[in-house]
Design brief:
2 domains; Rossmann fold; six-stranded parallel beta sheet; alpha/beta; 10 helices; disordered N terminus; 38% helix
Length: 291
């Protein structure tokens, strides 16, 4: 049985899946070297999924900063590959396939005697219109429960501010419970953010769920419908606005879930109660706390 609370490098699932924002090559190198060195020292396998960075630049940067990357590559402890061979294998991004890849990679690392797996993924491909890239937010939301709560894995999602539009950056990094950014450049807050819950399976929506943020709502609905958990909670206590179209998207997702247990709505705003009174059919797969 795999550990569920203390895995590669220790820490909780929330701590082991982090978004890292950077603006300069020096910031990129600083995050890279410490993370890789720690993994190699701990006897873990380390994988790097490059997008715009040349793979040989990754190993050269490590070597220049005192990490014997060529030796780690030769013995198979360090693997530097590309987003095209991982996230975009098959010519498009498929969250289900990527979740399966993590399972295979963790099993393969364990079979080779490594104490765990850690990975770095450059995520700039997700905002270049690649096939399936519109599902990146869904993926970031799902993997907390479907991957990091289950597998001995620690990962950094690298977001280069020079390549990722500010609005996309705000939404995607907010989907992580752990975030790292330069003190001189605090993260932007999106109009609507969605993040996994740190405790029970579920998601927290904050901000305004209206027409202007419909893509974020659609990703939240997709993650909700795909959740394998029997009981799922939607925390809406920080939601200032929810229009009927957003409610309908979430309600349909609740009905598509594999489990027959209603989705529990926590902190639902008064406007949502009014909408459910007007459209009771939307509440068929939901259970509002306190009603």
């Amino acid at each position: 049985m795999r550990a569920t609370s203390v895995n590669a490098g220790g820490g909780t699932a929330a701590e082991r899946h982090a978004a890292v924002e950077y603006t300069t090559d020096a910031e990129w190198a600083g995050h890279l070297v410490g993370f890789v060195r720690d993994g190699l020292d701990r006897g873990e396998q380390v994988q790097y999924f490059a997008d715009t960075t040349a793979p040989d630049l990754v190993t050269r940067t490590l070597l220049d900063r005192g990490v014997d990357a060529p030796a780690a590559v030769r013995r198979g402890q360090l693997v530097v590959t590309t987003a095209a061979d991982t996230y975009l294998a098959g010519g498009r991004f498929d969250p289900d396939a990527m979740i399966g890849l993590w399972e295979q990679a963790v099993d393969a690392a364990a079979a080779r005697g490594y104490r765990g797996l850690r990975a770095v993924g450059e995520m700039s491909w997700g905002t270049r219109g690649m096939a399936g890239a519109e599902r990146l937010l869904e993926y970031e939301l799902r993997i907390h429960q479907e991957v990091f709560e289950r597998l001995p894995l620690r990962a950094l999602c690298f977001y280069d501010r020079r390549l990722v539009p500010r609005e996309d950056l705000a939404v995607l990094t907010a989907a992580h419970l752990a975030r790292s950014h330069s003190p001189t450049c605090p993260p932007a807050e999106p109009g609507l953010s969605v993040a996994p819950l740190a405790g029970p399976p579920g998601f927290r929506l904050a901000g305004s769920a209206g027409w202007e943020n419909r893509r974020v709502t659609a990703s939240a609905a997709a993650a909700l419908s795909a959740s394998p958990a029997d009981d799922v909670t939607l925390d809406l206590s920080a939601l200032g606005h929810l229009d009927v179209a957003a409610l309908a998207a979430l309600a349909r997702a609740a009905l598509r879930r594999p489990s027959d247990t209603p989705v529990r709505l926590l902190g639902a705003p008064p406007a949502l109660h009014r909408l459910l009174d007007l459209f009771p059919e939307l509440g068929a797969g939901m259970e509002t706390a306190g009603r």
